[in-house]
UniProtKB/TrEMBL annotation:
Keywords: Lyase. InterPro entries: GD_AH_C (IPR048332), GD_AH_second (IPR007392), SAF (IPR013974), SAF_UxaA/GarD (IPR044144), UxaA_altronate/galactarate_dh (IPR052172). The keyword Lyase applies. It comes from Sphingomonas echinoides. It holds the Pfam family GD_AH_second. This is Altronate dehydratase family protein. The keyword Ligase does not apply. Residues 11-82 form the SAF domain. Belongs to the UxaA family.
Length: 498
């Protein structure tokens, strides 16, 4: 007898928590049926007859259309279910009463670095940002030697580390494409987790340091140093000297602050059929707590909202925010269509193997990461968060690109859910949350938290444990990615290359 999850009373399918063989009984919501075929964990079986052409319902919403008649107990997947997504849509603003959200955790605090502008960092690091790919290795060498000399064994440890964030762009770019690269780097240079920043340039690149500095507020300039390697004698020595200056300036102590000072990014990657049922709604409960406490949550991956965008539009705090979500969703769909690609070209092969069939299904699970929080702001790619509450940020679904955008926008920690697993880490502490216990057991070097526990213990105690873990990470406890030295950025490349 195998267990399955019924998400909504109106659903025509359930999701298996464990694999079943043909003829096995499947139990859900006090009922049972028999599986007609061998079906893996995370995949769906029908609990009512579905005629060809009818919608298949999960999360209480259609996740596509049946391409053949589906019998009770049959495996529902790519062989008999297809997306119904097609092109841009028109939407109408209809104000609704706000959904109830979690009460704030008044006693929840973390130990953060309070900056002069009032923002709070979860780390106190020196970041090295190359303007162009030509000096990426130079930036990496400076960071490695600075770590050994300034924060390695025997040093006084006044900063948490020196990190270079390299990329291949910054030259042979034009217009909006170059502007996007510059905006992301300028935003990272302003991040509260960086007590100081060294910007390393070549000298002849399109992404000139002077233009980059113009996007950095004057108040931030004392924590910035620059190095033009074509003009330097020994660029490594000069870079080390500038990092030493920044380390001296960055001396700071952690202070106790409340959750209203946390800026949380939420992301899913390598998802499976359980991601939208365990890990994502669990993160959603944390998002609600942070927003209720007066903090900020950033939600992105716009293509992974297609089919579920109305859930967010219905929670817009006003018509201007609603219009912002509509514009962002439709512009992203046009981006696909203008490149000759269908808007439904998702899920990935790994998602499909894990049980996700259509983009509608993936999106309905993905937006769970925001919980029921109202949407307060909408900001473009490369912009920085400007207010508290839930913000929708423009960025694609790609893990590295979207997490870099979250960090650049000001996220001081990222909750990253996964059903398949990934080792990637990003500029800010990235807490990996497994959707299933098998992954958490198999990959303890990647995973920080097991959301599969909700299947045995329910959401409330597991959400409380995750909230405590988030506060510990924000206070300095290392994530698995940090212990593994996984620190990457990726910039969204959209234009021509000269």
């Amino acid at each position: 007898m195998a267990k399955a999850l019924l998400v909504h009373p109106d659903d025509s399918v359930v999701t298996l928590v464990e694999p079943v063989l043909a003829g096995d009984a499947v139990t859900f919501d006090g009922r049972s049926t028999s599986a007609l075929t061998d079906t893996p964990s995370g995949h769906k079986i029908a609990i009512m007859p579905i005629v060809a052409g009818a919608p298949v319902v999960k999360f209480g919403f259609p996740i596509g259309t049946a391409t053949a008649a589906i019998a009770v107990g049959a495996h529902v997947h790519s062989h008999n279910l297809a997306t119904a997504l097609d092109g841009t849509l028109a939407y109408r603003f209809t104000p609704k009463a706000p959904a109830p959200t979690r009460e704030p955790e008044e006693t929840a605090t973390f130990e953060g670095y309070v900056r002069a502008d009032g923002r709070v960092g979860t780390r106190n690091e020196i970041w090295i940002l190359p303007t162009v790919g030509c000096v990426a290795r130079t930036a990496t060498r400076i960071a490695a030697q600075a770590n050994a000399a300034l924060v390695g064994d025997g040093a006084d440890g006044i900063v948490d580390g020196v990190h270079a964030f390299t990329h291949p762009f910054g030259c042979s770019q034009l217009g909006d494409d170059l502007d996007g690269t510059r905006s992301i780097l300028a935003a990272l240079a302003c991040h509260p987790n960086a007590g100081g920043v060294l910007i390393v340039g070549l000298g002849c690149e399109s992404n000139q340091i002077d233009a980059l500095l113009r996007e950095i507020p004057e108040a931030r300039r004392p924590a910035i140093r620059t190095l033009v390697t074509q003009l330097a004698g020994n660029e490594i020595d000069e870079g080390l000297a500038k990092v030493a200056e920044l380390v001296a300036l960055a001396r700071s102590q952690r202070s106790t602050v409340a959750l209203d000072r946390l800026v949380l990014g939420v992301k899913c990657g390598g998802s499976d059929g359980l991601s939208g049922l365990t890990a994502n709604p669990l993160v959603g409960r944390i998002s609600e707590r942070v927003v209720a406490a007066g903090g900020s949550v950033l939600l992105t991956e716009i293509p992974e909202m297609f089919g579920a965008e109305r859930l967010l539009m219905d929670r817009a705090v006003d018509e201007s925010v609603f219009d912002g979500i509509v514009t962002m969703v439709n512009d992203f769909k046009r981006y696909f269509l203008d490149h000759g690609e269908p808007v439904s070209e998702n899920p990935s092969p790994g998602n499909v193997a894990g049980g996700i069939t259509t983009l509608e299904e993936k999106s309905l699970g993905a937006v769970q990461k925001a919980g029921r929080a109202p949407v307060s702001h909408v900001i473009p790619y490369g912009a920085r968060v400007g207010g508290r509450g839930l913000t929708v940020l423009e960025a694609p679904g790609n893990d590295a690109v979207s997490c870099t955008a979250l960090a650049a926008a000001g996220a001081t920690a990222i909750l990253f859910t996964t059903g398949r697993g990934t080792p990637l880490g990003f500029p800010v502490p990235t807490l990996k949350i497994a959707s299933n216990s098998a992954l958490a057991t198999r990959k303890p070097g990647w995973i920080d938290f097991d959301a599969g526990e909700v299947l045995d213990h329910g959401f409330d105690p597991v959400a409380q444990a995750l909230a405590m873990h988030v506060c510990a990470i924000a206070s300095g406890a290392a994530t698995a990615a940090e212990r593994n030295g996984e620190r990457e950025i990726a910039i969204w490349k959209r234009g021509v290359t000269l």
